[in-house]
Amino acid sequence: MYYAHFGLKEPPYKITPNTDVFFTGGKRGAVLDALIYAICSGEGIIKVVGEVGSGKTMLCRMLQTQLPENIETVYLANPSMAPDEVLYAVAFELQLKLPKNADKFHVMQKLHQYLLERHAAGNQVVVFVEEAQGMPLATLEELRLLSNLETKHDKLLQIVLFGQPELDTNLNASHIRQLRERITHSFSLQPLDQQEVSEYLIFRLRAAGYFGPPLFTAAAVRLISRTAEGLVRRLNVLADKALLAAFSENAYQVRPRHVRSAIADSEFSQQARQSIWRKWQFALGMLVLLAGVGGGYFAHQWHSGRAVSPSGSMAIAATAPAKPAPGLLAGSAEMKAPAAKAEPAHAVMPVEHAMPEDILQARMQATQAWLARQVETTVTLQLMGSYQDADMRDALQGLALRLPSDDLYVVRTRVGGRPFLSLFYGSFDNREAAAAALKQLPTNMQANQPHMRTVGGITKELKLVQ
Question: Which helix (H) or strand (E) holds 425?
Answer without folding.
Answer: strand 418-428
